[in-house]
Amino acid sequence: MVRFQVLCVCWFAVAEIATAQSNYQVVPLRNPGTIKGTVKWSGPLPRIPTFAINKDPEICDPESKKTRDLERLIVGPQGGVANSVVFLRNISSGKAMDIPEPRRFMDQKHCRYEPHILLVPENGPIQIKSSDATLHTVHMDGAATYNLPFPFTNKVVSRTMPTAGLANVRCNGGHAWMNAEILVVSHPYYTVTDGSGEFELTDVPPGEYEIVAWHEGWKVLRQEASFDVLTERRIQRPVFSDPKTWEKRVTVEKNEASVVNFVVSDK
């Protein structure tokens, strides 16, 4: 039997998303279950923010669209919300870390980050490259602070992410619309929804848990001046709203699949 209940809709400090389980232990699994479900949008969609492509259009804008979707809110035809992070908050033991490699490898392609949301184990490496024949400078702040230039294409750079938490990513090479988020996590029960808003957490020990859907936030609050290290000129960069979370309780039974569906909105 699947049981869950809504706890709350709340804002909370970004560090909490990944630091609550620093004492997590890997243990043998006995009759683990699965949690699957969806994150779906309810109500009218807000205005999706875009940004003018005002640098390197031959590389950044091969289709001559003139503007770039900032990718802060992606809702599919059936209402599924992509790029939502779903994780278990109160889990202290379970399977070994198994974050998929594609979530730990970031490319810079057509002046956007792929993927937009990354999951990296605490004390583990993130690998970054640039497929673009222009200078990008990856700047991280938050759980990690790096400023990494990429003057050459396809050269992979690796850095260790030593502290659990959230790292914001932007380009200090003048491509002000580029943005991504890296969640440095201390246990493996994190996943990212696909284009249909679907998710699955596997090999979950039987028990009761708090399950959280996290979204980076989709509103542009303002623009602020930033510095282009290449042209040595000031540019305008978007400042985004804070992340948002939705919480439920779920009971995982032995060898069974529990279903948890989140409904999110602009309210």
Explain what the structure shows.
This protein has 2 helices and 23 strands. The protein is an all-beta fold and 267 residues long. A 5-stranded antiparallel beta sheet has the order 1-22-19-6-17, with no helix packed on it. The chain has a 5-stranded mixed beta sheet with strand order 10-16-15-12-13. Strands 9-8-11-14 form a 4-stranded mixed beta sheet, with no helix packed on it. A hairpin with a 2-residue loop joins strand 8 (105-109) and strand 9. The relative contact order is 0.29.
In short:
With 267 residues, this protein is mainly β. The protein is built from 2 helices and 23 strands. The two termini are 32 Å apart.
Key words describing this protein structure:
267 residues, mainly beta, 5-stranded antiparallel β-sheet, 5-stranded mixed β-sheet, 23 strands, 3% helix, 50% strand
What is the distance, rounded to the nearest whole angstrom, between the alpha carbons of the first and last residues?
32 Å
Please report the total strand number as a whole number.
23
Mean pLDDT: 91
Helix content, binned percent: under 10%
Structural class designation = mainly beta
Biggest sheet, strands in spatial order? 1-22-19-6-17
Q: Outline the biggest β-sheet.
A: 5 strands, antiparallel
Give the low-confidence spans. 1-15
Give Rg in angstroms: 19 Å
Number of helices: 2
Strand content: over 45%
What would you call the shape?
A: globular
Order of helices and strands: EHEEEHEEEEEEEEEEEEEEEEEEE
